[in-house]
Specification:
The complex is a heterodimer of chains A (760) and B (249). Chain A is of the alpha+beta class and 760 residues long. Helices cover 52% and strands 19% of the residues of chain A. Classes of the chains: A alpha+beta (760), B alpha/beta (249).
Chain lengths: 760, 249
């Protein structure tokens, strides 16, 4: 039932995520290509360029007024706060006419009037804002009050992993504030017949020397960043669904075996009076079919009830959509598949009936699973081990098959618990940033391109040189050179150069560049150029050609995932951006220092404490994961307990005579209970250890497979396990639960009466 | 002769059925008692009650002066482990252990002697019962007679005061049955108290005294005297058969 439930939830979510995003995109129509630009701009020149491009079917330039988070204060529901700690760049915009629309949860174009504001759901989630809250904008001596009228879905910027977010104002308010409160940022948006034309267009655009001192983003990156959280959720649910199906098969096998054992006499009688095998099997099969069907239907219903918890994120981020017919169909198909799998498995297990002979069943009373391994002489050699331990351990190791069910269930339960827990931990760990193409430091300073790029750079460098709190810093200069892709077409390569460039990143192959003729490529660039570590790469810049050797391939999601790192300084090539990674003597003051430097450096330069950067970037993913992880941990633990209880009940029934003998020869009930606790504990411990042993290999592979599938530019993530949680707390907790279940079930031994058990 | 087992007014009831009815009898140290009776007379129930494997509904069972009917599971287990030995109709050896491991198990559990000594005792018992050659065997691979001898060894490993047997030869052929009874008589000859339930006159004829049970009551008792092998078995059996016939058996 659980497996059907989870399988259905994941199928529904997968379809819902894709269809919700598609629905949202259909109405909102985010651009296929966006070039952000801050500072002076010649709108006519750009418009002229865009109109010349045959591939561009629609174009628009959106003006966004950048405001500092600190200039926005919110009051509502008894609380008052400002947005100064928001890492996202906040821009004020007015509604567009036909494309790149900001929508409400019903996917309708939002219209706000003067004094009203449309707040992105991202900010709502971060700060817990409510409709009707009052927002005060105070910047550059301008002060204006707004009321939150609507929460808006921004198809382009709805992920915390994008760097900006847009607040919607009425046309009048926007005209009033433009040019008075902050710098203008322009979103140069282009649409094509096919979104895939965006990367080619990007190269053409950049080479035309048009304004580009901001991020350039393509449709596929927008889509993927938006869906990341839900892709991970689906992955975890799918994993749990598959594992649960495995567990359900174990349970089925167990239930059938027990039933066959109990009904041995009846089966023998039926065979004796001439019932053929398949007719006896049908008798059992019908029963299990009805049970499986009931389980699948209940699971299906349950899936829609609990699915709401998991798809909450989809609804919030992408709005309410009707349950798509495809989701209904797919979930039905998944439920049907689970049923068919169970049916097939039941048939397979019931084949045992064929092997039971009339004489075995009626005369000898032989069980259907006769012949369980040999007996090893050796107990008498033990000198010290207490007898209960001796009996428990010997059974576990010499008759492991008898306990394989508990081993498998524990193994699966640990996997169900630890993979999501480790995944969550990985997302929460500071090191995760290195998987994303960023190095790990206390503070990250980014001097964005703009007219004052060099000024900003000099200012930042001066601060870092003079501030005694700085332990060390590395600077990177981003330049742009060209190289050929697989087809031979030239594409732009954004290269971060500096002494430390490429260090501290996670390499899929090769290593960081060490010499000046070496370059490291991001995974997506490596795919684009068709190169791997060790290959030569020709770069064109300043009218000259230079050959580099690719030292390694790293994963990156920054700058659209298309980056490169080199120690070579590309003299004479203009800088596009500067980045400083700063380590402080006392990392605890990172937040304070970042704020201090931000204030000193002013607009165009951001100084972010890394921890906060990560927290805000991955906050959405982490929050969603927490829900999923709690659910899978609970399901995993519950399952481990449930199966242990079922297994032990059968085990005790089978061992009844042996327990009676033990009691007859002087073992107390306490001794017998202890033996079962030792057996269950040892098997569980072996299961847990087996998983821990495999966790590095398998856990990582499962996650990497999913990430690679998602095509985000991250292909390999080594799960960062919290050793205390992963290797001590979770296993011990699971072990404790299993021992508790064993203790409860083994309590029944008290009711066993030696004489009736012996005479069974 | 010192009394080792003093059964007073013992009654046992299973729901609506009165199985044992106010039974009183004593067993002396070193005595060999056979309990006989028709099916349903309560002989096995009586054996289980006096050996502490089952609790009487009323009455007392004084074992070496202690009322075992009042003991909790821990204390009763300790008595079963160290002072009592059991043989059942089937050997009931633990199937996951070898013959030798089955025998040493109660000795190891008791912990009163070093394990080395327990092993030596086990070896001596196996030699005595003629199963030393199958010591390391899987119990599924030896004969019924050998199994029952192994069960006797297990029952004796902690040098108990009393050996209880519930139809110990019930599942054996006549040859094996005789061998097992010879061993039991030998043990009894060494001073161990033996109390057996049997429906086999040949087995009961080896006992010092036969207690005949009918409908939950002791109907009569026959004293045969010590079996020392000199008196021919047939004479004891004949005497017993005549007596049993008089009981209507």
């Amino acid at each position: 039932m659980f497996s059907a439930c989870l399988a259905v939830v994941s199928a529904v979510m997968a379809v819902q995520t894709v269809t919700s995003i598609s629905e949202l995109y259909k109405t909102a129509q985010p651009p296929h290509f966006v070039q952000m630009h801050k500072g002076e701009i010649d709108l006519q020149e750009i418009d002229a360029f865009l109109s010349e491009q045959e591939s561009v079917t629609f174009r628009q330039i959106v003006t966004m007024v950048d405001v500092d988070g600190g200039s926005l204060s919110v009051a509502g529901n008894g609380s008052a706060y400002d947005l100064s700690d928001c890492r996202l760049d906040i821009g004020l915009v007015k509604q567009n006419e036909t494309r790149d629309l900001l929508l409400n949860s019903e996917h309708e174009k939002v219209v706000v009037h003067s004094g009203e504001m449309g707040i992105p759901v991202l900010l709502k989630e971060m700060y817990g804002m409510e409709i009707g809250d009052r927002v005060t904008l105070a910047s550059n001596g301008v002060r204006k009050e707004f009321v939150i009228k609507e929460f808006i879905l921004d198809a382009m910027m709805n992920s915390t992993m994008t760097s900006s977010t847009r607040i919607l104002l009425s046309d009048e308010d926007f005209e009033l504030l433009e040019g008075r409160i902050g710098e203008n940022e322009y979103l140069i948006e282009a649409y094509f017949t096919d979104a895939k034309e965006a990367p080619d267009f990007q190269t053409v655009y950049e080479n035309a020397g048009l304004p580009q001192n901001g991020q350039a983003v393509t449709y596929s990156i927008i889509f993927l960043l938006s869906a990341l959280t839900d892709i991970i959720t689906i992955f975890v649910l799918l994993l749990a669904g598959i594992l649960l199906t495995a567990v359900s098969f174990i349970s089925i096998r167990f239930t059938i075996m027990t039933a066959l054992e109990e009904d041995l006499g009846e089966i023998g009688t039926m065979k004796a009076i001439g019932f053929p095998f398949h007719e006896i099997r049908v008798l059992y099969l019908q029963k299990y079919r009805v049970l499986a069907l009931a389980g699948v239907i209940t699971g299906y219903a349950l899936a829609f009830l609990i699915g709401g918890i998991f798809s909450n994120h989809i609804r919030t981020t992408f709005g309410n959509t009707e349950m798509p017919a495809l989701a209904m169909a797919l979930s039905l198909a998944v439920a049907g598949l689970v049923f068919l799998l169970i049916d097939h498995y039941c048939k397979k297990v019931l084949k045992r009936i064929k092997r039971i002979t009339v004489v075995d069943a009626l005369v000898r009373g032989i069980r259907s699973d006769k012949g369980k391994g040999g007996v090893r002489d050796g107990l008498h050699r033990s000198r010290k081990l207490p007898v209960n331990w001796l009996m428990g351990i010997r059974e576990v190791f010499h008759q492991f098959r008898n306990w394989a069910v508990v081993f498998t269930v524990v193994f699966i339960a640990v996997m169900m618990i630890l993979v999501p827990v480790n995944l969550l931990n990985t997302f929460e760990a500071p090191e995760f940033i290195t998987y994303m193409g960023s190095s790990l430091e206390d503070i990250l300073i980014e001097v964005e391109n703009g007219e004052n790029l060099e000024v900003g750079y000099a200012k930042a460098k001066q601060i870092l040189e003079q501030d005694g709190a700085v332990e060390r810093y590395h600077e990177y200069r981003r330049v742009r050179a060209r190289t050929a892709n697989r087809e031979g077409t030239l594409l732009n390569l954004h290269i971060d150069c500096g002494d430390n460039a490429g260090n501290e990143l996670q390499y899929l192959s090769g290593r960081a560049p060490e010499r000046e003729n070496e370059i490291a490529l991001s995974y997506l660039n490596a795919m684009e150029t068709g190169k791997d570590a060790g290959d030569a790469l020709i770069l064109l810049f300043n009218g000259s050609v230079k050959e580099f050797v690719i030292s390694g391939i790293y994963q990156d999601v920054t700058s659209g995932g298309y980056t490169a790192k080199s120690k070579y300084n590309f003299p004479g090539l203009a800088s596009v951006k500067y980045t400083f990674s700063v380590d402080l003597i006392d990392p605890d003051i990172a937040e304070e220092k970042a704020a201090e430097w931000s204030a000193l450096l002013g607009a165009g330069v951001t100084a972010d404490p890394m921890e906060e950067f990560i927290g805000q970037t991955l906050g959405g993913v982490v929050k969603q994961l927490q829900t999923i992880v709690s659910a899978t941990v609970m399901i995993g633990a519950f399952l481990a307990m449930l199966i242990t209880v079922l297994f032990l009940k059968l085990r005790l029934a089978r061992d009844m005579q042996e327990i009676a003998v033990l009691k007859a020869i002087g073992f107390s009930e306490k001794d017998v209970r202890k033996q079962y606790l030792i057996k269950a504990g040892c098997v569980s411990a072996v299961g847990i250890l087996a998983w821990i042993f495999l966790t590095g290999v398998l856990g990582g592979r499962i996650v990497n497979g999913a990430l690679s599938f998602a095509g985000l530019g991250i292909r390999r993530v080594e799960l960062i396990a919290d050793p205390v949680i992963g290797y001590i707390v979770c296993p011990l907790l699971l072990l404790a639960l299993i021992l508790f279940a064993t203790r409860v079930v083994a309590g029944a031994i008290k009711k066993y009466d030696i004489t009736s058990m012996i005479n069974e | 002769m010192k009394t080792i087992l003093d059964v007073r007014n013992l009654s046992k009831r299973f729901e609506d059925t009165q199985v044992l009815n106010d039974i009183t009898f004593q067993v002396g140290e070193g005595e060999f008692i056979a309990i006989m009776g028709p099916s349903g007379s309560g002989k096995s129930t009586l054996l289980y009650c006096i050996s502490g494997m089952d609790r009487p509904t009323s009455g007392s069972v004084l074992f070496s002066g202690r009322d075992i009917a009042e003991l909790d599971d821990e204390k009763m287990s300790e008595i079963r482990l160290n002072q009592m030995g059991f043989i059942f109709q089937h050997s009931y050896l633990l199937k996951n252990l070898s013959v030798r491991d089955n025998i040493v198990l109660p000795g190891f559990k008791s912990g009163k002697r070093p394990r080395e000594e327990v092993n030596q005792d086990a070896h001596a018992l196996m030699e005595k019962t003629g199963i030393a050659n199958v010591a390391e065997y899987d119990i599924k691979k030896i004969s019924g007679g050998q199994l029952q001898r192994a069960a006797i060894c297990r029952a004796l490993i902690n040098r108990p005061d009393v050996l209880f047997g519930d139809e110990p030869t019930g599942a054996l052929n006549s040859g094996a049955s005789k061998e097992v009874m010879d061993i039991i008589n030998k043990i009894n000859g060494e001073g161990k108290t033996v109390i057996l339930v049997t429906h086999d006159a040949k087995v009961a004829a080896r006992a010092d005294r036969v207690v005949f049970l009918m409908d939950g009551d002791i109907h009569d008792q026959l004293t045969l005297g010590k079996y020392d092998g000199s008196e021919t078995e047939s004479r004891r059996e004949k005497r017993l058969s005549e007596w049993l016939e008089a009981q209507g058996f």
